[in-house]
């Protein structure tokens, strides 16, 4: 707690009060007041080492001492409003779940250049247009045409 | 670990003399010394192995079944000889080859060049077997079986011989099975799995051969060719074209057309089936599907009156390929190019919604309910005599029955089938059937073709005639417009004049007819529409009487029909009441009829078109009712020799279309004159009361009485107009083939 305050004071000194407050808001401290999950993560973060940040702004922490088994690695979501587990990209998923000890940044090197596509989170409940539909799905706007015959067009004559 | 364990086990269990082998396992660098092409060590020394072979066990094993139900037919029981295949005694007729004897004994000999319907070439050497007392393995396909011959097909020598041949064949064969259309149904693949070695020793470069352009139907990848010459023999012997041949010798040997040209035969597609490898494959089917993805449906071809047996290969809703089925009585194992390649027409120009022509002359898609209501209303407004129905070329018997019943209930009997003319002779079946049957044509020794060009009208019948002419030097006389006939023939004349000369015995061809044992007269159905039809038919009958063509043991007076629906229509009695009913019609029901002369139809007539393709008649229609094509329905068709067969649905019906008979049944209900059948079975029960022979599937029902005795004498009053050609374009004869792109290509490139 003390270091947290010290850091905050240091930030105010360096950036001025307005900027410091903005940073606080961006980092989600203001949300803490309403959202217990974020507050809890923030408290959990104390003493954790930041292992990496992915391009969605998710921060990955780890700490091995004094933490019950299974909670050594955790994430602070970049999106402080609507966060969920599907926002974790594939490369970090393995690290986070102790599948591998390679961090996401290391695994990203293995991503195939030609056909690797970007991670996309699950937008269920956010509107049809955001949701992924397979190529034959009835709601896919660019739906593949499965008609295998050509019908006669009565335009001529 | 594996090697060590193996070596350990080997050294423990093997006797001392086998030790060096175990040694070789331990020491891979030594492998080369004793490496053989076969994995079974005994086979590396076949002579020695054969020497220590035990004597053959007595045949106490259960007898084996002949391969693919092969049957022996002994014309003369004295000619039977006995040979031993792997110790089993079999009786075969004299003159059979060793390979055929093995087949009867139930042993399948691998082969590439041998084909039971072609001459023997004996150049692939895959069929080597061991014959006792012969110093070398013999090519069984070319070796006649001799009495007492002891044939061995599973000895190490035979095995090694096959492995050797296989290795040579694979030397120059590309390894492109994954991208080859033949992959999965390739004789070379199968036989190298079954009889080949597990490795080859060839390390040099493979040769490659330039691909040939054989036209829009056959794709060539000539590097894959194994020079079995089946295609060359097929072209010269069955198809009757001298297009294909061998060029060069040794490693420069190539199959090709001597000069760059397309293969112009109506049977060219069959080389795809007989080529044992992927050298000749189907161009339209190239890279469309792998053959194990396809669902096969056994069906009947409807593009001509022969009713060739086909298998429709489909994947999902698409017909992807059509291949022949074996039927010795009809198409043997060939089909014509039209049958094989017209299937893409099934996917184009389809009618998929009921439509009504609005007052502005435009078609609007409507529901079935609305469309049927409109038709039923008009049906009740017109007089009974003004109702006319025409069944199309591709109609099945069930729908023709339903249509006839519907019109009869309305009080009209003006219904006929396209191609039968306005005054067909339907009372006696012998008057419109191919009485000697297609297979029976092989017994004929003189043919008289009257106004028919079998090559374009019924390619499979033509193949039979050609087979007969080749085998027995039968004489062929032809009356009709100049045409291309691919066997020896005499062009006697172009029209009725010649026919009369023969009938009066003034023509030199008469003597041939008189001296013939089994003369066959084939009259084209194109003459049905000729205006001097009656005179001509009685002239033909006079000739028949003259030449004793119709006897109790031989009926050689034949009619060759043009369309799949024709004979069933005549059996069902689809005969119009008057000749000019189209002109007077106020309500015209066209059931897939696209060759009706629409200019004759009165402008205020109400035309209903029920069919599957937007071809010709739709443009005159007031209401369009979409129906199913032959690949989508179960229907009975009778072919030109009177054999009824059935199509089966291979793919789902497109769009909102329905089966033909169901549409008519629904219409009858809306019109308030309900037809008494609700299922296909019930329609067939109705057919049974009219023409029971249509229900005897796959059986030829010969006609009982011959028409010769009943017909009146011919009158002399005939015009001298020459006969016309019944089929203008072999590749495009009906609505499906006219919609096909492949057929359009063929027309453009092959009929130049
Ligand atoms: S193309 Fe096919 S059928 Fe013709 S010789 Fe070559 S392998 Fe035989
Ligand atoms: S099948 Fe006998 S040599 Fe080819």
UniProtKB/TrEMBL annotation, chain A:
GO biological process assignments: response to oxidative stress
InterPro entries (alphabetical): NDUFA12
Hydrolase as UniProt keyword: no
Domain of life: Eukaryota
Keywords, ordered alphabetically: Electron transport, Membrane, Mitochondrion, Mitochondrion inner membrane, Respiratory chain, Transport
Membrane topology designation: Peripheral membrane protein
Family: Belongs to the complex I NDUFA12 subunit family.
The protein's name: NADH dehydrogenase [ubiquinone] 1 alpha subcomplex subunit 12
Biological source species: Protea cynaroides
Organism classification: Eukaryota, Viridiplantae, Streptophyta, Embryophyta, Tracheophyta
Automatic annotation (TrEMBL), chain B:
Residue stretches making up the 2Fe-2S ferredoxin-type domain: 79-157
Known EC number: 7.1.1.2
Record flagged with keyword Chloroplast: no
A single GO cellular-component term on record: mitochondrial inner membrane
Signal peptide from the UniProt entry: none
PANTHER family recorded: NADH-UBIQUINONE OXIDOREDUCTASE 75 KDA SUBUNIT, MITOCHONDRIAL (PTHR43105:SF13), RESPIRATORY NITRATE REDUCTASE (PTHR43105)
Function: Core subunit of the mitochondrial membrane respiratory chain NADH dehydrogenase (Complex I) that is believed to belong to the minimal assembly required for catalysis. Complex I functions in the transfer of electrons from NADH to the respiratory chain. The immediate electron acceptor for the enzyme is believed to be ubiquinone. This is the largest subunit of complex I and it is a component of the iron-sulfur (IP) fragment of the enzyme. It may form part of the active site crevice where NADH is oxidized.
Name of this chain's protein: NADH dehydrogenase [ubiquinone] iron-sulfur protein 1, mitochondrial
Originating organism: Protea cynaroides
């Amino acid at each position: 707690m003390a270091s947290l305050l010290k850091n905050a004071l240091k930030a105010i000194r360096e950036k001025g009060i307005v900027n410091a407050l903005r940073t606080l808001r961006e980092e989600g401290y203001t949300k803490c007041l309403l959202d217990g999950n974020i507050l809890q993560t923030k408290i959990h973060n104390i003493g954790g080492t930041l292992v990496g940040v992915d391009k969605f702004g998710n921060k990955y922490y780890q700490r091995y001492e004094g933490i019950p088994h299974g909670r050594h690695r955790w994430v602070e979501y970049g999106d402080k409003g609507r966060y969920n587990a599907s926002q974790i990209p594939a490369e970090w998923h393995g690290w986070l779940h102790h599948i591998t000890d390679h961090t996401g940044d290391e695994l990203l090197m293995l991503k195939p250049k030609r056909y690797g596509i970007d991670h996309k989170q699950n937008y269920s409940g956010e509107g049809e247009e955001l949701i992924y539909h397979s190529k034959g799905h009835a709601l896919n706007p660019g739906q593949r045409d499965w008609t295998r015959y050509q019908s006669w067009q009565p335009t001529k004559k | 670990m594996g090697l060590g364990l193996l070596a350990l086990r080997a050294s423990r269990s093997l006797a001392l003399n086998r030790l060096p082998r175990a040694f070789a396992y331990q020491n891979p660098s030594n492998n080369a010394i004793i490496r053989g092409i076969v994995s079974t060590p005994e086979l590396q020394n076949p002579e020695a192995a054969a020497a220590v072979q035990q004597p053959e066990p007595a045949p106490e094993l259960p007898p084996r079944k002949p391969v693919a139900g092969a049957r022996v037919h002994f014309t003369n029981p004295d000619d039977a000889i006995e040979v031993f295949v792997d110790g089993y005694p079999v009786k075969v007729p004299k003159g059979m080859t060793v390979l055929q004897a093995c087949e009867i004994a139930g042993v399948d000999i691998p082969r590439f060049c041998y084909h039971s319907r072609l001459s023997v070439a004996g150049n692939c050497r895959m069929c080597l077997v061991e014959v006792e007392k012969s110093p070398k393995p013999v090519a069984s396909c070319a070796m006649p079986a001799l009495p007492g011959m002891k044939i061995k097909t599973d000895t190490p020598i035979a095995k090694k011989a096959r492995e050797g041949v296989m290795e040579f064949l694979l030397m120059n064969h590309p390894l492109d099975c994954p991208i080859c259309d033949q992959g999965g149904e390739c004789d070379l693949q199968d036989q190298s799995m079954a009889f080949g070695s597990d490795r080859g020793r060839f390390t040099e470069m493979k040769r490659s051969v330039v691909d040939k352009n054989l036209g829009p139907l056959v794709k060539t990848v000539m590097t894959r060719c194994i020079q079995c010459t089946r295609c060359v023999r097929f072209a010269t012997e069955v198809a009757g074209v001298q297009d294909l041949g061998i060029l060069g010798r040794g490693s420069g040997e190539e199959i090709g057309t001597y000069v760059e040209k397309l293969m112009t035969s109506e049977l060219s597609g069959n080389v795809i089936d007989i080529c044992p490898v992927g050298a000749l494959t189907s161009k339209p089917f190239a890279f469309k599907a792998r053959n194990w993805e396809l669902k096969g449906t056994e069906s009947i071809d409807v593009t001509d009156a022969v009713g060739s047996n086909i298998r429709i290969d489909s994947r999902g809703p698409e017909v992807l390929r059509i291949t022949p089925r074996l039927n010795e009585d009809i198409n043997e194992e060939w089909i014509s190019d039209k049958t094989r390649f017209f299937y893409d027409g099934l996917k184009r120009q389809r009618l998929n919604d009921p439509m009504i022509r609005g007052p502005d002359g435009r078609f609007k898609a409507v529901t079935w309910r609305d469309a049927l209501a409109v038709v039923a209303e008009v049906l009740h407004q017109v007089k009974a005599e003004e109702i006319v129905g025409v069944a199309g070329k591709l109609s099945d018997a069930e729908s023709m029955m339903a249509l006839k019943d519907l019109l009869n209930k309305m009080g009209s009997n003006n219904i006929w089938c396209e191609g039968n003319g306005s005054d067909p002779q339907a009372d006696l079946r012998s008057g419109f059937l191919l009485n000697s049957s297609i297979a029976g044509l092989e017994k004929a020794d003189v043919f008289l073709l009257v106004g028919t060009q079998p090559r374009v009208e019924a390619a499979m019948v033509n193949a039979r005639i050609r087979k007969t002419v080749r085998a027995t030097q039968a004489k062929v006389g032809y009356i009709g417009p100049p045409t291309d006939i691919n066997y020896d023939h005499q062009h006697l004349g172009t029209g009725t004049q010649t026919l009369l000369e023969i009938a009066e015995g003034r023509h030199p061809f008469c003597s041939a007819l008189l001296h013939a044992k089994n003369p066959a007269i084939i009259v084209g159905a194109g003459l049905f529409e000729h205006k001097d039809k009656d005179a001509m038919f009685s002239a033909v009958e006079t000739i028949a009487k003259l030449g004793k063509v119709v006897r109790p043991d031989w009926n050689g007076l034949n009619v060759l029909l043009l369309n799949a629906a024709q004979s069933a229509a005549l059996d069902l009695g689809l005969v119009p009441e008057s000749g000019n009913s189209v002109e007077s019609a106020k309500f015209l029901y066209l059931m897939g009829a696209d060759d009706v002369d629409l200019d004759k139809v009165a402008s205020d007539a109400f035309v209903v078109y029920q069919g599957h393709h937007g071809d010709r008649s739709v443009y005159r229609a007031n209401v369009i009712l979409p129906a199913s094509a032959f690949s989508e329905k179960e229907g009975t068709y009778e072919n030109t020799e009177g054999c009824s067969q059935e199509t089966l649905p291979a793919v789902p019906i497109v769009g909102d279309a329905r089966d033909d008979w169901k549409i008519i049944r629904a219409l009858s209900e809306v019109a308030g004159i309900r037809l008494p059948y609700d299922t296909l079975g019930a329609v067939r029960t109705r057919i049974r009361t009219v023409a029971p022979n249509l229900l005897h599937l796959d059986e030829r029902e010969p006609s009982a009485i011959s028409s010769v005795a009943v017909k009146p004498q011919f009158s002399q009053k005939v015009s001298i107009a020459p006969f016309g050609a019944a089929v203008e374009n072999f590749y495009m004869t009906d609505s499906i083939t006219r919609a096909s792109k492949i057929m359009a290509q063929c027309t453009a490139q092959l009929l130049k």
